[in-house]
Amino acid sequence: MSGLVIETTGLRKEFRSRRGTRVAVQGLDLAVPAGGVHGFLGPNGSGKTTTIRMLLGLARPTAGEMRLFDQSVPASLPSVLGRVGAVVESPKFSPNLSGRQNLLLLSRSIGTPDTRVDEAVETVGLTGRDRDRYKGYSLGMKQRLAIAATLLKAPELLILDEPTNGLDPAGIREIRDTIRDLGESGVTVLLSSHILAEVQQVCTSATIIGNGRLLASGTVDELLGEGTAHRVVVADTSAALATLAAAGLNASLDADGEHLVVDSDDGAAITRSLGAAGIWLSELTPLRPDLETYFLELTAADTLGTTTGDPR
């Protein structure tokens, strides 16, 4: 066993048309460890959905290898799909039935006990609204019901393709909380998205792609690295600026003009310098690039690559 839930090697997908060949995924090596939430990140059209469709047997790769739970796919899909749940496209639910009735129909069609409906409804936070008609659901509730449907068979791997697209801030928060809870419960979640501020709040690891190619992969901490500056909050910023300058530490006011940014990763040196001058800290916070900044820098450097032709 490799210890990876998803693994691709040299994965490639070409689309041929009268206009020629368009490459959507080119030589992609993807490794998703078991447990937690793994962000699958890239700009729109970078090949995320195409990759997911190949993993699920919905599209045939042009070249390369894919494995789910250390089993080669698509050859072994029939034996592993029972362990996988996926929300790739908007599922079709009956609008005049309640959320619960829709889930009961699904659970009975796949032979799972009705108790799984109660568990799925509770997991996605629809308790109390599950008896409402589906047509009255908000977009966020519809997405949560779609996730609930995938949970009926208690999957070990859940694949979500842009689950917050079109949602308002409240809906995004609902889906984010659901995904975080699932990751903490032991389910491995592959979260495809381009909304980085949301992803950073739930992901433990991430893969970033651009033009169908791997750009970076690792834990979020590994990708962002250690902070090289500190945010400093003190009562007297002028005195603190002078003190830090005298200690050889470069400091400046931040954008709001109320706090300091010190260009040093040595928090102890900052504390000692200010404390020796009788200036006491009320906050000392390491600063590092957020995932969105890192992502934008990484993908901007990849703009010389050709477009993938992937419509999603």
UniProtKB/TrEMBL annotation:
SMART domains named in the record: AAA (SM00382)
Stretches assigned to the ABC transporter domain: 6-236
Example GO molecular function: ATP binding
InterPro entries found in the cross-reference section: AAA+_ATPase, ABC_transporter-like_ATP-bd, ABC_transporter-like_CS, P-loop_NTPase
Keywords: ATP-binding, Nucleotide-binding, Transport
Stated family: Belongs to the ABC transporter superfamily.
PANTHER family: ABC TRANSPORTER, ATP-BINDING PROTEIN
Protein name as catalogued: Unannotated protein
